[in-house]
Amino acid sequence: xxxxxxxxxxxxxxxxxxxxxxxxxxxxxxxxxxxxxxxxxxxxxxxxxxxxxxxxxxxxxxxxxxxxxxxxxxxxxxxxxxxxxxxxxxxxxxxxxxxxxxxxxxxxxxxxxxxxxxxxxxxxxxxxxxxxxxxxxxxxxxxxxxxxxxxxxxxxxxxxxxxxxxxxxxxxxxxxxxxxxxxxxxxxxxxxxxxxxxxxxxxxxxxxxxxxxxxxxxxxxxxxxxxxxxxxxxxxxxx
Length: 239
Known about the structure:
single chain; 239 residues; alpha/beta; Rossmann fold; 5-stranded parallel β-sheet; 4-stranded antiparallel β-sheet; 9 helices; elongated
């Protein structure tokens, strides 16, 4: 009995899966196979359609997304959803099998990466494995000292004081809060927050970091972000 069948036999509804794949034949095979196994399956053929569907339907439990999609690339779609706080597990499908491409898929926010061609039984097994993961595997709240970030509500508070951040500032702070006490270089931020594939000559990191620091540190509060000369920045929890 599949995971979907086991859930259907109890009080829980059948898992709802979204498939975003522009190859009509492959998409049809995936949808038919998953429906046969007891899943509810929705389908989109472009990255924008997938993005709109994920935003509109909170019942979707798993996203299966092709790496190469027309108009909006699959990884770009996933990055946007992660930036907006979506924690739904994502299985990336791709004909690109190199280690670098796998790493890129996972860093974009994918939870698993399956290369084409693949057996439908393997895809189904990976779907079940992702759906078995407890919801808590992706933390919804980050805390560093008196600093607290809610990834669902997209709010930040320090000692109870709410701090309004722009989307890029929020993502920058999230990156730091996931690595407290660790020195973060400008190159790391340019690659992982701005998604540059090379390191340009720019002061964009310092500009955003300055604005973020100004918002985080209220009157009489110790600085949370310290500069590390010649290296980058570190987030500490002095209070």
